[in-house]
Design brief:
The chain has about 100 residues and is mostly helical. It has two domains: about 1-35, no CATH class; about 35-100, no CATH class. Helices cover about 55% and strands about 0% of the residues. It contains four helices and no strands. The chain is extended and about 45 Å long.
Length: about 100
């Protein structure tokens, strides 16, 4: 299977590891929305931001992984289409608007 080693585990450098958010089953998204409405998700997000600001390393790591995705082990600076500074600033501005609402 693509991206896996002989034991079936994801191999180092695997590019096929997680399902992109736009490919997640819509039924699962509906179930998640019912189980945890946006008001609860927003409370969790605000609490994580609060804890991260207070210096909680785990909250900071979870928050950045949630917003930006887990960082790859290596970054190829020669590849186009990656995160640019403008994209990062835009995401930070979006997150700030949500938090301040």
């Amino acid at each position: 299977m693509r991206g896996k080693d002989a034991d079936g585990k994801f191999a180092k450098g695997n590019k096929f590891g997680s399902i992109p958010r736009n490919k997640v089953d819509p039924g699962l998204l509906t179930l998640m929305s019912v189980a945890m409405p946006s008001s609860k998700r927003l409370k969790i997000l605000k609490k994580a931001v609060e804890q991260a600001i207070e210096g909680d390393k785990a909250a900071r790591e979870w928050l950045f992984n949630y917003v930006y995705g887990k960082a790859p082990d290596t970054v190829d600076l020669n590849v186009s289409g990656g995160l640019t500074w403008d994209v990062i600033k835009g995401r930070l501005n979006d997150a700030e608007e949500v938090i301040n609402d």
